[in-house]
Write a structure and sequence with these properties.
The chain has 113 residues and is mostly helical. Helix content is 50%, strand content 5%. It is built from 7 helices and 2 strands.
């Protein structure tokens, strides 16, 4: 008899996919380069990056910028942005971007256009 209330509380706390629902309220990183490139000069400056990542707490935005700025010139170009290093992908902070890309591609593959 106690099984159902425990199940119900677990569903409320962890959601259907098993992750804590409080994580869903956390600020995610924007996935599109254009979101960061405020002045449309095809480079992301430190200031633009910090502005776009305001409220992101899963990783220090300044440290993240340094990891994305592979050549150390204090800007992130499109090629640096789209080819994140494997270690950064392993952190899981970009997983939602992969799901967004898959949603279009998976829809296209399945023929449900």
């Amino acid at each position: 008899m106690l099984v159902f209330p425990v199940f119900l509380v677990s569903l409320v706390v962890f959601g259907i996919d098993g992750r804590s629902t409080s994580m869903d309220k956390a600020v995610s990183l924007p996935c599109k380069f254009e979101t960061y490139d405020i002045n449309s000069d095809e480079e992301i400056s430190v200031e633009e990056f910090l502005s776009a990542t305001k409220g992101f707490t899963k990783m220090d935005p300044k440290a993240l910028f340094k990891r994305l700025d592979k050549d150390g010139d204090q800007t992130i170009r499109v090629d640096e942005f789209t080819h994140a290093d494997r270690g950064l992908e392993d952190t899981g902070i970009l997983d939602h971007c992969k799901r967004l890309r898959c949603s279009w591609w998976c829809t296209y593959i399945s023929g449900k256009r």
